[in-house]
Every structure is written in C-alpha cells, then in structure tokens.
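Many introductory courses stop at the sequence. We go one step further.
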Amino acid sequence: MADRLTQLQDTINQQAEYFCNSIGILQQFSTPSKFAGFDRSGSQTPQQQDDYAQLFATLITRCAKDIDALIESLPSDESSNDLQTACLRRLETDNQEAAERLDEVVRSGEFLLEQVLSNTGSCKFLGAWGQFWSEHLELDISC
C-alpha cells in the first residue's frame, strides 16, 4: 500500500476531479437563459439535476473527510525527531534481543550437530533433538 503522503496526493487529485466534474455537470444541465424569439427546452428533468447535485455533494464531502483524516494521521513536526529516536532505540533493543536468541539457538544447533555426528543412531541423539525442539518450539517430543 502507498505511504500516507501518496495517499493524500491521490485523494487531493480525486477531489480536484470531483470539482471539475461537478462544474461540467452544472454547465451541461443548467437551464438556459431565455432569449426573445428563441425557445429551447433542456433534456434533463429537474429531478435528474438534483440527483447529480446530491451525488457530487456527497462525493466532495466524503473526499474532504478523507483528506482531513489523512492530514491528521501525518506525524507532527514538533515530536517527529523525538519519536523517531525513541522508535529507533526500541528497534535496536529488539534487534539485540533477537540476535541473542539467535546466537543461543545456533549454539544449541551446533551442539546437537556434534551429538549427531558422534552418536549416529543412538536414542541419546533423539532425546537431545526432542529436547531442543521442545525448548524452542514448545513441542512435546519424547523418545
């Protein structure tokens, strides 16, 4: 999905399109001025004109609400740097914790590999393998 600024730009472009189309509808279906000696009746009934007016009023209003919501969701200038710094610190901490867990799992895997190579076919290996998976994947595997 697009970022918020792209969404905002797309919504503003949509709003501009609604404005242009509504002006075109007004020009197309407005009642002509009366001139002496010239009588021309419009092809649209007043009900159809009202339907177009209601449709575009609804579209423009809904689009304006979407624009307001997108603007409100943008980060503010005052807290932007502080929030980004705090978020980066939190991500670095999470990354460090994940790296430590990965190191532990790799060490356990290397230990199990050594056991496999030295005890091929023994039940001892199967028990260690089951213990490894039960610790790291919360499975109940028994030999």
